[in-house]
Write a structure and sequence with these properties.
By secondary structure, this protein is of the alpha+beta class. It contains six helices and 27 strands. The protein has a six-stranded mixed sheet with strand order 18-17-19-23-24-27, sandwiched between helices. The N terminus is likely disordered.
Length: 578
């Protein structure tokens, strides 16, 4: 009996284990199958696609190419995306199911990227849909023609006829930022950097590459004991090929600065991070600022855009001929009156004489380096007051006196000139208003002082007019609607005067050259002839070139003239500058 009980218990145990094992075997294969060898991708069976009751008829219409997202040149450029747009129409009586755009390339150009397929969904009979295919160009795209074939695939086989689109591609054109000019100046006319005083550096940044530079930023960094007087970082945005932008940076050094030169680091960056620049411009504390440092960049062969040499200064401000020897009996007085608003409260800056300071400084340099006037015998006055102008003329008169007839004198003036009610001409110092003309310097008095003592010859250059007109706007903010014709003065001694205008005309600037129109062509003559040439040749050059360029640039007549005393009427044209 005991054996039978044990066997019965064993059978019960075996049956219970079998149930558990059978249950596990029934569950385990299902769990194993859910985790094995199949992806999560949904599979669509043919039987799931609705059977057509009528044929679908798919058409690609209104096929267009759009460069609206790029630079609108109808090319696929590097790092650019264009769009191919079209209308998908179902002109059939049956619905179209599971439509998708299939795009194939029939070209070998690298760098053209697009999705080969694009799901578009179902399209009922008689309906249409707008479709956009994005095509991008990589940095390594080649120049050529892209040829894409577009086909609409339909699940029941009612595919569209293929459509083709062809468009041109352009290889990557890189920008290249360059510092093409840098000029240091100060506001005191001293010609040298002075510790503790503000110095201005103008830098010209140009894109000399063939691609547009985007996100351009410029940062200036100065050494220890040198401090910026304004902004140090500048956002320039985009620079097209050959485009340039001027930056003005002001700085000053304290009196603890021990160096002999100041180095300003200029760093320009652009969005690609590869085609910027990092350079250092140095200005000496010993040399005069007139001898500014210029970084000249050799021109590169043009591709699609001609790259031109650009500079902050006119061509006559560079490459000034230096001729030997000097002439010990030559003397010069040079005046450039530009900033009238600084000395006269309430006077608008538009009443200033554009570029007069630069005119005077360049005339000074040519007189010294090309005309042989000793540097110590040139008196340069920038923004001169009435007292300074009178003192300078008195000094020049005494120099003529003590040179005992051997002096050769040059006088240059750029600034405002005005007549009084009687037509008498006056030079206007920066501290004299247009309402008080007779407080200015009477031109006839100057002529008399220049001829009071014997001299070899006296030559005067006047880049001013005396009819109430000026460079830009009139100095007279008065209700005088008619310009006064200046009265002609008979000249004494052996005096010769080159004037910028005739009669009621205005002396105008040439903004592109940063000079007065008259002064530019005067300097250009000296530059081209290297200081040689006669007075007669200069008169012909000024008459022709100033008149022509003034009409072409300012759409206004400006006719220079020559005034001379009776004593030189027959000989002045033969006078030589050297």
């Amino acid at each position: 009996m005991k054996a039978m009980k044990l066997n019965f218990s064993a059978i019960k145990l075996w049956m219970a284990c079998s149930v558990v094992i059978l249950t596990c075997l029934l569950q385990f294969p299902s769990s194993l199958h859910a985790q094995s060898f199949r992806s999560n991708t949904q599979r669509v069976r043919i039987s799931e696609i609705p059977r057509p009751t009528a044929p679908a008829e798919l058409h690609i219409t209104d096929l267009r190419f759009s460069d609206a997202l790029g630079d609108r040149n109808d090319l696929l450029d590097a790092d650019e995306t264009v769009e191919v747009r079209f209308t998908l129409e179902n002109k059939g009586r049956g619905d179209a199911y599971r439509t998708r755009l299939s795009t194939q390339s029939r070209h070998s150009i690298t760098g053209v990227n697009f999705n080969a397929t694009q799901d578009l969904g179902d399209l009922k009979a008689g309906q249409s849909r707008q479709v956009t295919l994005s095509v991008s160009g990589s940095r390594g795209i080649q120049t050529g023609e892209a040829w894409l074939v577009l086909t609409i695939r339909e699940a029941n086989g009612f595919d569209s006829d293929p459509a083709e689109v062809r468009f041109n591609t352009a290889a990557f054109r890189n920008p290249q930022l360059a510092l093409v000019d840098a000029v240091f100046t100060n506001n005191d006319g001293e010609g040298k950097i002075t510790l503790g005083k503000t110095v201005t550096m103008e830098a010209l940044i140009q894109n000399r590459g063939q691609g547009t530079a985007r996100g351009v930023r410029v940062k200036m960094t100065c050494p220890a004991q040198v401090f910026p007087a304004g902004e140090s970082e500048f956002v320039l945005g985009e620079l097209a090929p050959n485009e340039s932008r001027r930056i003005t940076y002001e700085f000053f050094a304290n009196k603890m600065y021990m160096g002999t030169e100041i180095a300003i680091e200029i760093q320009a960056t652009e969005s690609l991070g590869t085609y910027g620049l990092k350079q250092t411009q140095r200005v000496s504390l010993e040399k005069t600022l007139a001898k500014t440092q210029t970084l000249q960049i050799a021109g590169q062969q043009a591709k699609s855009v001609a790259i031109t040499d650009q500079a902050l200064r006119s061509d006559v401000d560079r490459n000034i001929p230096t001729i030997e020897p000097t002439y010990p009996n030559r003397y010069a007085l040079v005046i450039g009156n530009e900033d009238y608003s600084k000395f006269q409260r309430g006077l608008a800056s538009e009443s200033n004489v554009a570029f007069a300071r630069n005119d005077a400084q360049m005339v000074r340099d040519y007189l010294q380096r090309t005309m042989g006037v000793p540097a110590t015998q040139i008196d340069l006055k920038l923004d001169a007051t009435g007292g300074e102008m009178e003192q300078a003329m008195e000094r020049l008169k005494n120099l003529i006196k003590y040179t005992q007839g051997e002096a050769e004198v040059f006088v240059y003036y750029a600034g405002h000139g005005l007549p009084d009610e009687g037509g008498e001409s006056y030079l206007i110092p920066v501290d004299v208003s247009g309402a008080n003309v007779r407080m200015g310097v009477r031109l006839a008095d100057w002529y008399q002082k220049l001829s009071e003592f014997p001299s070899k010859r006296v030559t005067v250059f006047l880049d001013a007019c005396f009819s109430g007109g000026a460079r830009g706007t009139e100095l007279l903010a008065m209700a005088r609607g008619v310009k006064i014709v200046p009265r002609a003065n008979s000249l004494p001694g052996n005096l010769l005067v080159f004037t910028a205008t005739s009669g009621e005309q205005s002396a105008l600037p040439w903004a592109a050259q940063n000079h007065g129109m008259f002064t530019y062509h005067l300097l250009k003559f000296w530059q081209d002839r290297r200081g040689d040439g006669s007075y007669g040749e200069l008169a012909e050059r000024l008459t022709h070139q100033v008149g022509l360029e003034s009409v072409r640039t300012n759409n206004t007549k400006q006719d220079p003239q020559v005034l001379f005393s009776d004593g030189v009427a027959d000989v002045w044209k033969m006078w030589k500058f050297r």
